[in-house]
Amino acid sequence: MVVPPWLSVPPPGYGGLEQVAAGLVDALTGRGHTVTLFGAGDEHGTAADRFVSTIAEVQYERLGESLPELAHLARVNQMITADDFDVIHDHTTIGPLVAGRRAVPTVATVHGNPVGEYGAVLSDVDQGVALVAISHAQRQLNPFLPWAGTVHNALDISGFPRKTTPGPGPVLWLARFSPDKGPDVAIRACRAAGLPLLLAGKCNEAAERRYYEQVVAPLVDEDVTVVQNAGRAETLRMLVDARCLIMPIQWDEPFGMVMVEAMATGTPVVALARGAVPELVRSGLTGLVCERPEELPEALRAAEHLDPDDCVAHVAENFSVERMASGYEKVYRRVVAGRHGVREPARVAIR
Prior knowledge:
Layout: H1 16-30, E1 36-39, E2 50-53, H2 67-79, E3 88-90, H3 95-98, E4 106-109, H4 116-123, E5 130-133, H5 136-141, E6 147-150, E7 171-176, H6 183-193, E8 197-202, H7 206-216, E9 224-228, H8 232-241, E10 244-247, H9 257-264, E11 269-272, H10 277-280, E12 287-290, H11 296-302, H12 308-318, H13 321-336
Parallel strand pairs: 1-2, 3-4, 4-5, 5-6, 7-8, 7-10, 8-9, 10-11, 11-12
C-alpha cells in the first residue's frame, strides 16, 4: 500500500485519502492479507504488518510540490521486488505514471477528478496499470481510461461518536477554504434560512488563506462562527453537534468523505447535486439533495426532521471498510491473474 508523503496514516486532522487508506489497510490485514505500508514520517496508526518510511518526516509543508512525491515513489520503486509482493496499491497522484517500471502489477486509486491535467497524466499510464474509480460519477467524467473497477471509499465507524436525536445545533460547513467548496454559498443559504453557521475549514495553504481573506472573511458576521484547521477529535465533535452538514459544492466532487463522516455520526447532509453527492446521500432519508442553491434554505430547516439512525445505518450498509476491502480484493485478484485488461462496466449509483 503506497500513500503520498504528505501526512501520517491515519492523519491527525484533515486528510480523507489517508483516512481511507488506514481503514483499508486494517480491513485487509483483518481478512488475512500481509500488508506493507509505504509512507513518510516515523509513525503510523494502522494494523499493517510492516511500515516502510521513505523519508524521516512527513512532507506536509511541501504539499503541492512535485519533487517530494517523485522522490518518495522512486524510493518505493527501488524497494519493490516480485519476490516480496503480489500487488501494489498506489494512492498517489503521480504513481500511476511511474508504475510501469515496477516488477509487480499496480492497482491505482484515482482520488481526484480524471480530467484536465490530471486526465492527461492518467491517459498516459501503462496499460498494465489498473485504475480504480471511487465513484461512478467520477468514472463517467472520463470513461475512456483503463478502469478496472469502481470501489467507494469507506470508513471504520466502530469508534465514531453518534447523536441519538436530531439536534438544534448550528449548520456545519466542513471543507478546505476553496471556491469549489462553496463557503460563500453556505453563508448565504444559512442567512436566508435564519440559522447559525459554523465554518470549519482547512486554511493553511497560500491559496486557501488568500481565498478566505478576500472572499469569505468579508461575508462573516455574528451569525457565522469560523474554526480553522481543526483536529480530528474536534471535527467529530462538531459533526455530532451540528443540525446538519451543508455541502454547497461548485464542482463535480469525486467522492466527498466528509458526507460519509457526517452520516456516520447521525448528522444528515444538505447538498447540491454535483459529482458523487447523489451516490452518497439518500435524499429524504439521510439528507436532502438540492438542484439549485435557492433550494438550500428550506432544506436546511427541514433536515432536523431526519432520523440519525437512518444516517448511521446507511453508512454501515454501503460504506463499511469490509465492503471496500472486498471490492478491492476482486480487483487485486483480476490484476494478479492478468485479467485486468477486461474493463468492468460502470454500474448504477446507490440510491
